[in-house]
Specification:
single chain; 205 residues; alpha+beta; 3-stranded antiparallel beta sheet; 3 helices; 32% strand; flat
Length: 205
């Protein structure tokens, strides 16, 4: 299948409720309408999942919730985006933010999880965890507990020919660190990258 090198069109949609304003992306104009519907449904599910997480930890009532998104990749038929929900409930010491992400093939509508980026049977969890362990030491990132391993379905996005693994607030580090993010060049893990996955498509010459 020949790939369209051009970015796809993205519309900004808004969820507006009392004390809540969330901006999230929806794709438009895809040649594959089924793929467009599938991706847009998944984007909305991700947003609603973030809202649910927020409601789970915040005191209801006067909580102020704001949401936004950031496109990380929009080329070669691959779309990768992060979506964040920021909420503050007085008199909390600080706001709480949750981050979600989605990586999709806009030609097929496939949404990728971390496992699907790699060849079947590859020891991707160990290889990525070792890379992250080195980065924690080199970048002197404080951790709440000694880091051992990522989850097989750890949060990620793709950007600039890199896989970026990230952790939620408090998942790895103290709050003040923010979201710990670990870019891993596709060229460092090329041996285990699955053919025709977003990583192999974005790194192809």
């Amino acid at each position: 299948m020949e790939r369209n090198q051009l970015p796809v069109s993205v519309l900004t949609r808004t969820i507006t409720r009392p004390h809540t304003r969330i901006y999230y992306p929806q794709l438009t104009g895809l040649s594959n309408q089924q793929a467009e519907q599938q991706i847009n449904k998944s984007l909305l599910q991700t947003v609603n999942g973030l809202i649910h997480e927020q409601e789970r930890v915040q005191i209801q009532g006067n909580t102020q919730i704001q949401g936004s998104y950031e496109i990380k990749t929009n080329e070669r038929g691959i779309f990768s985006v992060t979506m964040s929900n920021f909420a503050y409930t007085p008199p909390m010491a600080h706001p709480m933010t949750f981050l979600g992400s989605l990586t999709a093939d806009v030609q097929t509508g496939k949404i990728y999880n971390l496992r699907e980026l790699f060849k079947p049977g590859s020891d991707y969890v160990r290889i990525l965890s070792e890379n992250i362990k080195k980065q924690i030491q080199q970048r002197q990132i404080p951790t709440l507990n000694p880091f051992t391993t990522i989850s097989p379905e750890q949060d990620f996005y793709v950007a600039d020919k890199s896989l970026v693994i990230y952790f939620q607030l408090y998942e790895l580090s103290p709050y003040y660190v923010g979201f710990p993010m670990f870019p891993i060049s596709v060229y460092d893990i090329g041996a285990i990258v699955a053919d025709n996955s977003p990583l192999s498509i974005l790194s192809a010459d």
